[in-house]
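Q: What would this chain look like folded?
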Amino acid sequence: MRLFRIGLLLAIIGTAFAGAAFAQKTRPRRAQPSKPPVAKTVAPLDVRAAREKVDIQRSNTSRFIDVLGPIAQEIENTTEAARRQNLPRATVERNEQNKRRVIAAIRNLRVGISELESDFRTRSSLKRYLPSIQGVTDLVASSEDMALAGKFVGAKEPLRDVLKKLVDTLNVMPR
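A: My prediction, written as structure tokens:
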């Protein structure tokens, strides 16, 4: 009887494993149609070089805006304090010197951006990207005019628009 129970137990276990083995049988896979390799197109050398220049000007403008913020606020606060009360002569002179430095920095930024926009106007391979960058020189000139008028904090707004246009141009240009 004991042998009969062991035999029955082995038969049940064997049947369970046989069923599991049958369920794991692999079926032949259908061959997937292979996709043709996608050829990556490389932008022409002029476009790649112009993209790099746009990226450099974007970086310069972004850094300039970040640095200009606290300086512009300090310049305007010191100018207002000088109007209300007598400040030491050295403080007023240092403030005037800072004003001249900021205006000179905006002019230098305008030179680089003007050259960039000029490249987009003159090179035939870049003319299709001109609408996205057009007008950045005028925006920097507007920023310079605001700084000359003593509105240093307000001079950041046109520069932010320049930054947006440069980013838009980078998004349009191929890598």
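The longest helix spans residues 45-84.
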